[in-house]
Design brief:
It is a single chain. The chain is an alpha/beta fold. The protein folds into two domains: about 200 residues, Tandem AAA-ATPase domain (Rossmann fold, 3-Layer(aba) Sandwich), CATH 3.40.50.10810; about 170 residues, Rossmann fold, CATH 3.40.50. Helices cover about 40% and strands about 15% of the residues. The protein contains 16 helices and 15 strands.
Length: about 475
Amino acid sequence: MTKSEKENKAKIEYAAFLQRKTIKAQQTGITPPALHRGLFDFQRNVTEWALQTGRAALFLDTGLGKTVCQVEWARHIPGKVLILAPVAVAPQTVREAHEKLGVMIHHSRDGSTLDRCPITITNYERLHLFDVTQFHGVVLDESSILKSFSGKTTRMLCDLFKNTPFRLACSATPAPNDYMELGNHCEFLGVMPRSQMLARFFINDTSDTGTWRLKGHAVQPFWEWVATWAACAQKPSDAGGDDERFMLPPLTYKIHTVESVMKPDIEEGLLFSGGGSLSATNIHADKRETLPQRVALASSLATEASSAIIWCETNAESAALAKAIPDCVEVVGSDDPDDKEEKLDRFTMQKVPRIVTKSSIAGFGLNWQHCNRVIFASLSYSFESFYQAIRRSWRFGQKRPVHVDVIIASSEQSIWRTIREKMDAHQEMNEAMRFAQFDRNRTQAIKIPYNPQHKTELPTWISK
C-alpha cells in the first residue's frame, strides 16, 4: 500500500470514528411513498425526510408551505392524525389542504373525529376535549407558540403525546438564542429531555441570570445534533429547491417618534425618563402618556392605506385604536374563541379592510399577503413577536412591497435598537442551522457497518 493510500485510509477511518461518536436522533418513521405532484421539490424533500424520521421538526420560513408539508405528512401516516393550530388558522388550513392537495380535513370544535376523515384539526385551546390515545400522529402547527403558553401547558403536551408514534412540529426558524424553544421541541418529539440537552451542550451564563449559552467546544456538535431531528430553510435552495419562484418583495421600515413627557423619575434616580434603557415601570408610564399621539398617528397612517394591520401591546391601546380607525375589526384576547376565529377570518377573506389586534393573538400562522401595510402602534422588546407580525404580510406569495411603520416614544429608542440587534442574531442562528443541515445532507448516505476485528475469549469460570 502506498503512502497516499495509507493516508486516505487513515482519513476514512477517522471520519468513520467521528461519525460513530456523533449524537443522532433515532429514526422511527416510514419509507416515504410517492408524494403529491403539487409539492415543490424542496417541500417534497423535507416531507420525505420528516416521514422517514418519524418524529421531526420543520423550521421553514413563512410562505414556504409548512401547511402543505404537514398535511402531506399527515396524509401518509398510518392511522388517525390530529393537527393542533392557533386560533383561526384551522379554517385556513382546511381550505388550503383541499385546494392544493385535494385532502379533506375534519375541523373539530367539540372533540369529535370522523372515521371517513383520518385527519382532524382543532386549535390548542380545545385540546382538552379530545381523547388523544386514538391518534397515531400529531402535528403542532406554529409550534413556537408553545413558549407563550404556561410551563404547565407545555408539560401537558409533552405528556399527552409521549406515546404517540409519529410527531411533527412545524414553525418558522426559532428566535435568536432562544435555546429553550429548541429544548421544548426536542422534548416534545421524544428526542432528548430539555434538561439533558442543557447539561450536555450548555453552560449557565453567570453574567446574565437564567440565560444559557453554548459551550465553546459544543457549538458544532449541537447544531449537527439538531440537524438530525430538524430541517431548517429560509429559502427553497436551503432544502434542495429553486429560489426563482420564491423571491421576497422589498421591505421598508419607517420610524415615527412621538415626544414623551419628560419628568423627574425619583425611583430610578434619573432626572428624565428618556434614558438609554427603560424599566418596566417607565415603559408602561411612557405608553400611557403617549397613547393619544400614537393612536392619532396610527389612525392617519391606516386610513391612507386600502388595507392595514395595526399591531398593539395593551387592551387600552387596542380599544383606542379600534375607536379611531374606520372600517376595522378589533380582536382581543377576551373574545369567545368562535368570535375570535370569525373576526380573524373576516380579515383573511378580505371582508374588512383593517384589523387591530396583538401579535400574541394573531401573530402566528395566518396568511395575510393581501395586505402590504403594517403598523406598530406600540412595540415591545420581543423580537419574535415583531418578526412574526411582519411575516403575516411579508412572506413568499406577497406581490407588492411591504411598508412597516413603527411608532415609538422618544424614550423608547433602546427598544428599537434591541430589536435590530436581535435581527442580526437571528440571521446568525439561521446560518448555523443551515450549515449543519448541509453537512447532514452531505454525510447522511455514509453507512458504517459493524465489523468486529477482535475476538474476545470468555474466562473459564464464565464459560462453565
